[in-house]
Amino acid sequence: SGGDSGGGTGDGDEALKVIAFTSGNQTPVGAWWVKAVQEKADELGWDLTMIQGDFDFQKMNPAVESAIGQGADVILDGYTDVSSIGSIVTAAQDAGIPIFSIDAGTEPSDAFAVNITTDQQQIVDQTVEALDESVGGLDGKTVMVIGHDPHAGIRMRAGLAVEALEEAGATVVGGEPQQVTSPATGRTEALNFVSDYLSANPDGLDAVWAGWDDAALGAAQGLAEGGSSAKVTGVDALSESIAAIEADGNMLATIEQPWPSILDQLVELVQAYEADGTLPDENFVAVDATLVTKDNAAEITPSDKLG
Amino acid sequence: MTVEKESTRTAAVVVQQSSRTAGRVLLSGGTVVALILLVLFFFLMRPDSFLSFVNVRNILYQVSILAIIAGAQTIVMVVGDFDLSVGATSSLAGSVAAALMLDEHSVGVAILAGLAVGLAVGLVNGVLIAYLNLSAFVATLATMTSVIGLAYLVTAGTTLFGMPPEFTQLGQGRLLTIPMPVYFAIAISLVIWAMLRFTTVGRRWHAIGGNVEVARLSGVNVRFARLLAFTLAGFVSAIGGILLAARLGSASAEQGGDNMMFSVAAVFLGMTVIRSGAANLGGTMIGVAIIGVMSNGLNILGVNAYVQQVVTGLIIIAAVTLSSLKTRER
Amino acid sequence: MTVEKESTRTAAVVVQQSSRTAGRVLLSGGTVVALILLVLFFFLMRPDSFLSFVNVRNILYQVSILAIIAGAQTIVMVVGDFDLSVGATSSLAGSVAAALMLDEHSVGVAILAGLAVGLAVGLVNGVLIAYLNLSAFVATLATMTSVIGLAYLVTAGTTLFGMPPEFTQLGQGRLLTIPMPVYFAIAISLVIWAMLRFTTVGRRWHAIGGNVEVARLSGVNVRFARLLAFTLAGFVSAIGGILLAARLGSASAEQGGDNMMFSVAAVFLGMTVIRSGAANLGGTMIGVAIIGVMSNGLNILGVNAYVQQVVTGLIIIAAVTLSSLKTRER
Amino acid sequence: MTLAEGRPEVAASVSSTAPALEAVDIVKSFDGVHALKGVRLSVAPGEIHALLGENGAGKSTLIKIVTGLYAPDSGEIRREGHAVGFANVRAAHHAGIVALYQELSIVPTISVAENVLLGEQLPGRAGIVDGRALRRRAKEQLERLNQRISLRKLAGDLSPVQQTMVAVARALATDARVLILDEPTASLTDTEIREVFAVLRSLRNEGVAIVYVSHRLEEVFELCDRLTIMRNGETIVTKDVADTTIDEVISTMVGRSAGSLYPERGTATTDVVLTAEHLEGRRVKDVSFTAHAGEVLGIGGLAGSGRSELLRLLAGAQHYRSGTVTVDGAPLRRRSPVGRVLDAGVALVPEERRSQGVMLGASIQDNVALANIATISRAGWVSGSRIAQIAKHGMADLQIKARSARQPVGELSGGNQQKVVLAKMLARRPKVLLMDEPTRGIDVGTKAEIYRLIRELADSGTAVIAVSSELPELIGMSDRILIMHEGSIAGEVPADGADEELLLSYAYGRSHEHEQAE
Ligand SMILES: Nc1ncnc2c1ncn2[C@@H]1O[C@H](COP(=O)(O)OP(=O)(O)OP(=O)(O)O)[C@@H](O)[C@H]1O
Ligand SMILES: Nc1ncnc2c1ncn2[C@@H]1O[C@H](COP(=O)(O)OP(=O)(O)OP(=O)(O)O)[C@@H](O)[C@H]1O
Ligand SMILES: [Mg+2]
Ligand SMILES: [Mg+2]
């Protein structure tokens, strides 16, 4: 990676100059992250430049790069996939500034000093296991997988889910994830997938695995309307899905990703770099997520209530 | 649209008059033919399930909100304009209603507030277009942008949920196994249809869309009628948005977003159905049906979502081209 | 648009003639005034940073792709049409180019293929509209849908990245500290400007946009000229999309999506700048500048993203209304 | 150029060459209306050939056929003896035939220079327009017409006269060998007309064949070498101008004794229904008059004299700058919209049927219903039976020939379209009916019906104010005639026994001579 060994400000007199950016500030978690990073900066006395991209890389990337042009010690990336920020990565490498990121891709990448994210395989394992239990064994069962390829995390776990489900002996509808085309209408699209399938194949679904909660909630509604008792799992731990899980409907489980502790972990690594220029040993850290079911739903802080 | 109508007026009449053969009459139903072909195709592919009661009901349920918003778009397009803000307005209305309910206001108050919001957005559009003479495209594009922003503010960027069951029943309840939104869509379509056909204001709208100068010289208050059309479109969009919130049990800033493009496409498809080439509610409903059947059928066949999109565009082109052969110069 | 132009042609001309006062001339610059006011406002709010070299360069960088796509839109709107597919075409072109590079094709071949794709989409639009007489709105709406689907297929729904540096340099490289896309945008704008102004085809486009019937009866080959306009718009959109892919170092199916609405808004803003009310490249660039300054300035002030959206709509309305006062009847 | 300017030499050269343009037995009908029934026209190089005929005689249709805008049903077009057929206007251009169409002028949003050279190969190389050469060429053309119009100005900013001159310049700028001008001078003033004539004469001397359509016969006699007279889609005669007189031409054009067409005059009352005082519009200048119940008040004048505008002002379609209009003793508010004026009892049957009178795509009953929304509805709801009733009445009263009341108006013949407009306004039972060119484009039989209707209306107490460009019609249908000249009323004549020549002289603004002569 492009970290210069003499990096870091070392002397401790000057404030650490930090550029933080996220494209996902219009999501609840993204909005929480913006606030949380600002709080950390106040607490630690960072000189922070926060850039919010509204999912618009045409707008965000130049803004970040011009901030890099003005000099910085560290760059923080929140929830922005490595594939969308190629130009930022180049600029940062040229300027010798390390990027510390949260959930910025699902695989190790030299672009980052470190990228901490949740372990997609573990997410899939937990959700598939929950489904397996609820339907009394997945073997011979039919499961629909709902994905959204433009989102790297969802894409990866949807692919892994198809593998895991097929390994467990289940039939995946269409043999691949059903693709939601726009996140804005994800709930309606998922609902339509499920109700279309059910009306052509009544009682044809045993479970739905959705890559994120909004789609999972749509799928759950489609199942309920189709009179199916099949179960759905999602990812995100939105308060709405937690409520749905507690209500004991078609929504079976979701996944809580421990963003606050991930951010703490990231800040520690930044502080280590600030102190003596040490870069993290590994540039990819996958942390475990928590399966949220009826049993533990009450103890979970919903991801949209973090801030 | 009026664009072509006006500029090639002479030529259009010549063509209309010089050739009305049986073949052309058949072709004029190009869009209807397209719908029938689609239905036939999917029926042959899935004879057991596609035309089953359950699936037809399912299609109706899926298109009910779009039908309402396309109805709103029809009103505006009868007058010869566009409204790009229908989708945004519906989201805002749904969000406002949802937010008020979560804020402990009664369902009635919340719905009324949502409707009032739609009315207000429509009124703003109408004033900008009819009285300040802004082009409908730029005015509704601008209100669309602002209204989406407002919807984000109202929802704080999240998805609102947890509305009382009296409310969600409006979208999810059933009567004789048919979901409520289907009844609403039918009722609203009938009202709009009757309004366009049997009321004085409906006649005025048609006249303006047909020839704004003739309408003016026949004593029609053109500005007021256009204002009314946009206001009503805002109001009807709001109904659609509120129902969508009830149907999904949740409200977010962009959940009605794709209804805008689809509503315009439906009206355009429907315009090809009748001889005069004007926007008309019956045609719009055929357009809505094409969109609904296409999406449901392709889903049932398990066609990849991306291929679906490609096919959707092609079918729209095919349907409109088929019909446009009859009105070459219009 | 042509709608109003045609139907109130006589009236417009009469009005134009009867009242040309100094006040009107001033008002005609409404959009320019709006831009100046915006710049002034942000400068006063952030005197140290807003007009700094770095920030101005930053604004230029941010709007450079939009400027190119708005240039494409200008061409089509000079002729009196719309192109809703510019954003989708740019995404597809960028995706195709990126996919080919990742597939080990040379940068040159990949770029040429991307450009060819844009040309092809534009050609299809042109044939549908100029020769099959589909309304520009419905034809480009349909191609937009299909083209987005194709882009999803090309990218397999993901974001393609890892293109060779010779390619990404086109979007990220700098010359005299100014990023390359700024030069491209300026060069392409100049070419389009010169084309619209100095070439025979450019003059024909203007004539068609001004009054298609007079142009036709004066012997202008209207169909071919319209075909050419759409084809060129597709080609220029493709340049924009390829540059965007180079600039971001990545390509995805929807990354150019919002450029469509913004490009139309920019052209509409620009139409208010000149007396004739026609689309014009200078005006479009002012429109692009307004959009760029607005977004950058509001970001610098730290205005909430949602409030930004509300304000954006309001500013567009204000700018157009300001200018429309002069051309009440157009 | 060795030919001296003047007619005899040119006429001599005409006889020795093949016709530059020949139309042989051209037939064209528009869905039942026989616009052309075997028209012949032959134009020699180096002549100015007048094409004359009443409104609706088929002149414009012939021109559109010759230039490839319409396809003839049968017949042949010959260019220098060879049969040709053009698919579109461009093809005709390539063959050297260029037309300036009636009522079609300029592109408002582009410059004067570009308008002048619109459709031409623009000067320059490799597709780049040489702006300076463009303006130079446009300037040359405008200078030939003695016009000093700024070349960079937008054409939309010019005065109507200047716009027409630009359009004329465009036609003249082509190196056409056959130049067809359809009423180019309709909205020009004398000075401009002189300039146009000078250029046309010099083109003639260069051997260009010119077809010239005009309703201004004096012009024709001053400018043209030969003339062809059309009537009801047929060519009646082709003559050397030197061998005929205006009177002869007029009687050939009218072609019948006007008397039989028109019903008996009634007895006008002295009850004043409408009073106009000192009306000022754009073109209308200080017009005052009264109209009485039961009378048909004809308004005559040359094209562009402001007749249409006067009616538009009275109907609220256009707002007057000053003056008052009183209906039945109650003054109308200034800036009253059409609806308000209609409610006061004043209805307009406008001049341009297609763009102002009827919605072509809508059915007969929908058109009729449009102006009668109050009568066909209760509490905002339209009664289908009332519409059907009102349409049925209108169709019966006016003998509208149509399949049913639901037939689209665009499918009807011109005369029946006109009757639909009438039916629409008559259903309002107006106190004052304003009719602008009530029989334009209408065949003879239908004309008589419309005159009968107008008379019946008057007999039932309505005041009918009718503008007409056809003098026999004006005399035949009216009780009293006002003649307008350049926006003012130049004279008033009782219709009974009125003399066309006298009306014409008022129309040309030569009222004094005649008053003295009488
Ligand atoms: N496009 C058309 N469709 C139907 N009828 C038409 C059309 N154009 C012309 N006509 C009819 O053909 C006849 C001849 O019209 P034309 O315009 O040639 O007359 P004209 O001699 O040029 O009259 P004017 O002196 O008023 O210009 C009229 O009865 C007219 O109504
Ligand atoms: N529909 C209209 N809209 C605006 N202005 C009009 C309209 N019709 C006529 N005018 C204006 O009225 C003025 C007077 O022309 P007008 O048509 O009244 O003369 P006219 O005597 O009726 O001649 P014509 O035989 O051409 O009808 C013209 O300058 C024209 O610009
Ligand atoms: Mg004519
Ligand atoms: Mg007139």
UniProtKB/TrEMBL annotation, chains B, C:
It is a multi-pass membrane protein. Coiled coil: none annotated. It is found in: Cell membrane. The chain crosses the membrane at residues 25-47, 59-78, 84-102, 109-131, 137-163, 175-196, 227-249, 261-294, 306-325. It holds the Pfam family BPD_transp_2. Its main location: membrane. Keywords: Cell inner membrane, Cell membrane, Membrane, Transmembrane, Transmembrane helix, Transport. InterPro entries: ABC_transp_permease (IPR001851). The keyword Transmembrane applies. This is ABC transporter permease. It comes from Microbacterium salsuginis.
UniProtKB/TrEMBL annotation, chain D:
The keyword Zinc-finger does not apply. It holds the Pfam family ABC_tran. Gene3D superfamilies: P-loop containing nucleotide triphosphate hydrolases (3.40.50.300). GO terms for molecular function: ATP binding. The keyword Lipid metabolism does not apply. Residues 128-155 form a coiled coil. Keywords: ATP-binding, Cell membrane, Coiled coil, Membrane, Nucleotide-binding, Repeat, Sugar transport, Translocase, Transport. Residues 21-257, 267-511 form the ABC transporter domain. This is Sugar ABC transporter ATP-binding protein. It comes from Microbacterium salsuginis. The lineage of its organism: Bacteria, Bacillati, Actinomycetota, Actinomycetes, Micrococcales.
